[in-house]
Sequence to fold (518 residues):
Amino acid sequence: MSARGRAVLVAVLVASATAGVWLRTIHLETWPPGPWIDEAYALRAARLLPEDAPLFGTSALTPPGEGFVNAWMPNLYLVFTNAVDRVAGGGIASFRALSVVPALVLLVALFALAFEAARGRPFALGTTVALGASSMWLLTTGRWGWNAVATSALIVLATEAALVAARTASRAWAAAAGVLAGLGVYGYAAGRLLLVAPVLVLAVGLPRRDTGGRRRTVLAGIALAAAGAVALPLLAHLIRYPDRAFAREREISAFRGGVRPACVALAQNVADYAALFFLHGDANERHGDPARPIVPVAVSGLALVGAAFGLRRGGVERALALPAALSLLGGLLSSETTGANAYRVSPAAPFLLVLAGLGADRLLAGLPESSRRRGALTLAGLVAVSAALDTASFVRWAESPRTWGAFGGPERELADALSAVQAEGPRRVVLNLRTASRNAYVVEELLAPPGHRNAPVILFADLSRERMTLRESILYADGGELATIPALGGHRGDVLTRGRDPWGRPTFVVYRLGPDVP
Fold:
């Protein structure tokens, strides 16, 4: 590479790294305005985790009293959540830290994977880091994806370690890859699929008797043993409690209705996920822009080129296609009622972006020498336009009123209003569970400091139905549509603040209630 080429590459890497960090941290408290409900449940579960809870056990994600449990969280992840909560200081900062910190780690991991996969191919490296820094898919998920983002970071680091192990024949790197893959089991359920990777490598390598095949078999065996050792405590716990092992998976499985409906669902999933990458986005606006694919169509095409080269010729591309395919498999096997789910397959995103970079390099290498300069400029322009489109889409998503509604905007504003009034002096808070908030747990966790256990910050009640004797000055928050003095059930109250949604409709009213006079 010429000195000018090196300078361009360094400029691209520095600009991409700077932009990637900036986009993941800009407007940290307001993009999106509030947390996703599962984030609140996870933070609540972490704060309520008993001191003597087994480290390698599981706890219910849904709060006590809900009457059902559709997911069991590994306690090791909840311990991590608790540590992040204490450092962040509670409130919205804790929610953001649970997603944004892993998103920054994932960005570093993606860059490391790109450096390893694109050795000797500077165009592939520059393309990957530019796309990874600006990917709307990664940026949106990185603001609220909590355990999926953390698990994705571990999976990418495990794959990078595995590539280093394959290149250097290092057993230490193979063991490191296994340890990282084993840790991924303690996060998002998709992390369990990565354990299949060394098994497949073993299955392919065992019949071969050449030196390369034997070496890969040994390395894959070391990685599998290390992953199994790390994941074994959780796996033993799930064997002991089989109802917890696949609680969520049973709920969303395409096979829950039988084999014939499953075949129809799988065929529909294939069509839906193809459309997700080439025609339109996820219908759930929490996952991005429904009007456009989760990655620009050109990037999807480049990723297909990279995967096709890998499947035909082997090498790094084939190695990256394996974790990408395993990450997509979870989505394909689930029952989707609203089309493809971008969040469920988000761990595939980093691998697809690296494959896109490698695919761009392969296309460039296939051009005649006389056309490569023109081809490089064309592909670089295509990548720059794709990155700009993704960045603009992320900003539109973050500022959309629909995002405000999808991420607890009313709850966030209610929590901020209550905190502002409480700053004048501590008061008890009574929240009308029926009307003041669509989900009272979000408000509770937004207000609560880290470290609180079973002492709720908010009393959930409905003063319009319950006759309460107030012996202290309290704050009462009621839903905007029902917030009238008569709704207070005879209690005296002064309106302190009102909330409205972006369309001007009332969302809540906060009252100050004085002690009842006998």
Summary: The CA atoms of residues 245 and 432 lie 36 Å apart. The first helix runs from residue 3 to 25. The mean pLDDT is 88.
